[in-house]
Amino acid sequence: MHGQVEVQAIGPGAVNQAVKALAITRGYLSAEQLDLTVQPAFIKLDVDNEERTAIRFMVFSYKLQG
Fold first, then answer.
1. Domain that holds residue 28
2. Which residues have a Cβ under 8 Å from the Cβ of 7 and sit 6 or more positions away?
3. C-beta contacts of 11-19 below 8 A and 24+ residues apart
4. 60 sits in which H/E element
5. CA-CA distance, 50 to 26, in Å (whole number)?
6. Distance of CA 11 to the CA centre of its chain
7. How far apart, in Å, are the Cα atoms of 23 and each of 3, 10, 40, 52?
8. What is the pTM of this model?
9. For the domain that residue 57 is a member of, what is the CATH number?
10. Distant-in-sequence, close-in-space partners of 54: CB < 8 Å, separation ≥ 6
11. What pLDDT shows up at residue 65?
12. How many domains does the chain have?
């Protein structure tokens, strides 16, 4: 494993943009012989004293073989 980052998104538009960003990122990383794996999960967040459901994307990069 090379590195990791956590991305959180609330709402369908934000989730859609996050997924598109992850797909685009894979293209940029291929030139560096890197790829991503993503583990999505539902989480509860407190936003303005209100509980909201969000999606957390745990993103891991790894070096490609070859």
1. 3-63
2. 18, 22, 56, 57, 59
3. 15/55, 18/55, 18/57
4. strand 50-63
5. 34
6. 15
7. 17, 18, 14, 26
8. 0.85
9. 3.30.110.20
10. 8, 9, 10, 42, 43, 44, 45
11. 86
12. 1
